[in-house]
Design brief:
12 helices; 2 domains; globular
Length: 296
């Protein structure tokens, strides 16, 4: 079974090593899961190890440090044993991910070197690294018989490969080197234009392409290739993200929020909001603490 068949046909699978509790880095398990829509929330509470996840499809919501973060294909996130962190899969687009569970005296410094400092997630892994990262995780599920006798050493070697790769990502920046010249300029101009005009319901990639003087199809292809998601998806994320900010500043009318962030139909806004969060905007508003007069 090759990697594509494995990822398509496997619901959930965990492989366990024989590592010692006394090592600096002790790799306990590698796992893979195509989450089901009704998968309950998973929390770091009560679990003694660090769990690193790499998302290869779908999406989920990570609750960390009092924030809600939407994560998708190409993101990594970390559940820490000493922090209150939780994730919930998107019921409409359930997440698929690899994960590894590790503990040991060097875990904390190791993950810090991989880019997990104050945040418990990484921006999308550059495309030039994604295939290799998938292969490293997958290798732990197809270990040949002679090596199973030293599976703890194999697990450790593969985890160190993950460490080295993410270390490179953290210290070389998140943008692939090949995004240079005009391509880089076009992406930057597109994002800047979105940031200034996201509240306009008619905003489209056709409009942006006309403004920056390139063909619409070329911009659409380039944006998806370099950002890892289509223009419309990126715009929806931006609008939903801005709706959080308005709610936290005290705006309570769902219709007003929808119009303010660029949705011409409040019902459609509610549908998109629920797709990302699993709850409606009204339910989200009810969970927010009251805003004081000084904060408004």
């Amino acid at each position: 079974m090759d990697i594509t068949e494995f990822e398509q046909q496997t619901h959930a699978l965990t492989v366990t090593g024989n590592a010692s509790d006394s090592s600096d880095i002790n790799v306990e398990h590698f796992g893979f899961e195509n989450t089901l829509p009704d998968k309950p929330s998973v929390s770091s509470a009560g679990y003694p190890a660090f769990r690193l996840h790499y998302i290869i499809g779908g999406s989920l919501t990570l609750y960390t440090g009092g924030k809600r973060v939407q994560l998708r294909k190409g993101n990594c996130f970390l559940l820490r044993p000493d922090s209150d962190i939780e994730y919930r899969t998107n019921p409409n687009h359930p997440a698929s991910f690899y994960w590894v569970s590790v503990n040991g005296q060097r875990c904390r410094s190791c993950f810090a070197e991989m880019g997990f400092g104050k945040e418990n997630y990484l921006p999308a892994i550059p495309k030039e690294y994604r295939r290799e990262l998938r292969r490293i995780f997958y290798a732990n599920f197809v270990i040949e018989e002679p090596l199973k006798e030293i599976i703890d050493s194999v697990f450790l070697a593969n985890f160190l490969r993950i460490y080295h790769l993410l270390y490179l990502v953290a210290h070389k920046g998140s943008a692939p080197k090949r995004i240079t010249g005009k391509r880089k300029e076009y992406i930057e101009q597109t994002i800047e234009y979105i940031n200034r005009h996201y509240s306009e319901p008619s905003l489209s990639i056709k409009e942006i392409a006309r403004v920056i003087h390139i063909h619409e199809n070329y911009l659409s292809h380039t944006f998806r290739e370099e950002m890892g998601l289509p223009f419309r998806e990126y715009l929806s994320q931006k609008r939903i993200s801005m709706s959080y900010a308005l709610m936290e500043r005290g705006m309570t009318s769902v219709s007003e929020i929808a119009y303010a962030v660029g949705f011409s139909d409040p019902l459609y806004f509610s549908k998109v909001f629920k797709r990302y969060n699993g709850i409606s905007p009204r339910e989200h508003l009810q969970k927010l603490p009251p805003v004081s007069a000084n904060e408004q």
